[in-house]
Amino acid sequence: MSFFVALYFTIYQTKYFFIKKISNNIIDYDYFSMLVCSFNILK
């Protein structure tokens, strides 16, 4: 299960990085953290 968590986090981190570059910091990092926490709760 930890493999999937690592994979999910890597994909999401990469996606977040590009979104942050495109939107120029419109999306708050707290929102990203909340998504990661939500995923951890769901698993």
How many helices? The count is 2
| End-to-end gap | 9 Å
| Share of β-strand residues | under 5%
Rg for CA atoms: 11 Å
Report low-confidence residues grouped into runs of 5 or more: none
Order of helices and strands: HH
Number of beta-strand segments: 0
Principal-axis shape equals flat
Q: Number of folding domains?
A: 1
Which structural class fits the helix and strand makeup?
Answer: mainly alpha
Q: Fraction of residues in helices?
A: over 70%
On the 0 to 100 scale, the average pLDDT is 74
Largest sheet: none
Q: Any overview of this molecule?
A:
There is one protein chain. Helices cover 84% and strands 0% of the residues. The longest helix is centred in the first third of the chain and has 22 residues, at 2-23. The N and C termini lie close together (9 Å). The chain has one domain (2-42). The chain has 43 residues and is mainly α.
Which structural traits does this protein have?
43 residues; mainly alpha; 2 helices
Topology readout:
Layout: H1 2-23, H2 29-42
Structure summary:
The protein has 43 residues and is mostly helical.
